[in-house]
Every structure is written in structure tokens, then in C-alpha cells.
Amino acid sequence: MFLLDNVAFYLGPLPIYWYGIILGSGALVGLLLAIREGKRFGIPSDFFMDLLLIGVPSAIVGARLYYVIFTWDEYRDNWLSIFAIREGGIAIHGALIGAVLAAIWYTRRKGYNFWRIADICAPSLIAGQIIGRWGNFMNQEAHGGPVDPSFLRDTLHIPNFIVNHMNINGVTYHPTFLYESLWNIAGILLLFVLRRQRFMRAGELFMTYFVWYSIGRFFVEGLRTDSLAFNGPGWLEAMLNGMWAPMSWIFGEAGAIPGDANIRAAQLIGVLIILAAIVLVVTRRMLGLAHQRYVDPIQKEGYISS
User: Fold this and answer.
1) Can you name one GO molecular function term for this protein (predicted)?
2) 224 is a domain residue
């Protein structure tokens, strides 16, 4: 059985991994999408290039800190290992927090309304996730629990090269990277349609991205076996399990949660993000804070770009 190599090529003795190439490609595609849409509003491409240069390091730091916080027992006696990021250990929610904080600072510094820029960048974020998840595929990581390969081939009609690569040490696992990537493809198409609708107000495309991604991540996360998790109250566990239950009708049992924990952090955070996004959209409209529409010209420091 042919398996893909996670090393793309070597620069002398230095291996160049597909994971890094794929993540870099996702960032580049996201940048090009933002630049193209930004031109419609008269925003120079340099703005988005600088935003990427600031946002990527901030996302990496946020992703690492988030992971370390939820796995503190692994690092409390060896602080230097916190910086050993090449050994793995990052989380997408932390990356989003880091990137958003950096974007808030940078957009204000440049005189732009954060919500307007965030709307333009929303498809870029989800495009990066669509592509980036294939890095997990190459590394055979972030997968779900064991599954019968015939289910993947005959029921879900997943290509053989994916099914074969999900066979790890003789056991086939759910390709959760693929489920999330496909969900996000539908999400980016939705964003492309919504951003041309006049009823969309500033910030609402960005919030739609968070809601869409969080819904998909909630259900896919339940299949994974590497979830960041913690011990929580029984009622919260029952609520989250009940919400996830429809997924079991198609995909079977949920993946095992590592250790003795009972709450998957990504699922809880996803639910909170959905609720916060809905409340924020409704509140901003009720208070008249969302008077600008997505299709309106973007104002900067007293003038309007066309």
C-alpha cells in the first residue's frame, strides 16, 4: 500500500515538510483573496501584506499559549519546552485569538474600522483553514477514532489515497481533517454570496464565519481523539453530548477523550462563540452601531475610498 511522505524535499540535511508548505500556501491564498476584495474598496495591497506579517506570528503565539494553558501539567516543570513548538502542540482557537488581537491593533493604527477589514478577511481565514487541514492529513494527525475502511470507501465515497493514508499502524481512522475542510468549502461559498447582499452590515460577515466554522468544528471535534479537554460538571457534559448525538447517526461513536477529562474545550468554546456572535450582531443592530453595510465605501481618517 502506497503511503504519502510527510517530507516534501530536503535542503541539504534539512527536511522541508509538507505541513509547512501547505500552511504557507493557505496563508498565501488568504492574502490574495483579501487583496483582491480590498481593491474594490481602494485599500492598498501593502496593507494586507503587513497585516499578514503581523497576524501570522501573533496567531502562532496565540495557538501555542492556548495549547499550553490546556495542557499545563505537561509544561509546569519544564518551562523551556513551551518554546519547543516544532514538537507539536498548537490550537486553532488560540491562533484566531492571537490574529484577531493583532488585527484590532493594526487596523486602528492605520485608521480603518476593524469590522470592515474583518469582513474582507473572513473568506481569507476560512480559505486558510480549508487548505491548512491538509497539513494534518500529511502528518496523519488530528484524526478521529477507528472506523471500518469500507464505510469510508463505500458509504462516504472517500478516495482511496485518503483512506489508505488514514491507516495508521494497521488501524483506519476517521479523516476528520477532510470533514472539516469540506464543511469550510461550503462556508466560503456562503460568505462569497452573503458579502454581495445589501442586508449585510459591517462585522456580520466576520460573525457569520465564526458561527459557520464553530458549528462544523463542534460536530467534527466529537469524532477526534486528540481533543484538548478538562473536567467539567455533569450537566455540561450531558448537554454537549446531547447536542452532538445526531452526528452518531451517520458516523457512529464519538472519539475517546484523552485522560480522565469529560469536556472537549473546542466544543464548549464553539458553543460560546456561536452565542456571543448572535448576541453581538443583534445588539449592534439594536443600538444602531451597525449602520454601515458591507457594500458601502470604506472610510479612513476623514475621507471615503471608492
Assistant:
1) phosphatidylglycerol-prolipoprotein diacylglyceryl transferase activity
2) yes
Domain that holds residue 280: 122-305
**Cβ(182)–Cβ(216) under 8 Å?**
no
Contact 258, 229 (CB under 8 A): yes
Counts for the chain of helices (H) and strands (E), in that order: 10, 8
pTM, two decimal places: 0.91
User: For 66-121, what is each residue's pLDDT tens digit?
Assistant: 888 887 777 777 766 667 666 667 788 889 999 999 999 999 999 999 999 999 99
16-42 burial code (b ≥16 CB/10 A, e <16)? ebbbeebbebbbebbbebbbebbeebe
Binding-site residues, in ranges, read: 133
User: In a 10 Å sphere around its CB, with 0-12 CB exposed, 13-18 middle and 19+ buried, how is residue 132 labelled?
Assistant: buried
* 135 in a structural domain: yes
Rounded CA separation 43/31 (Å): 13
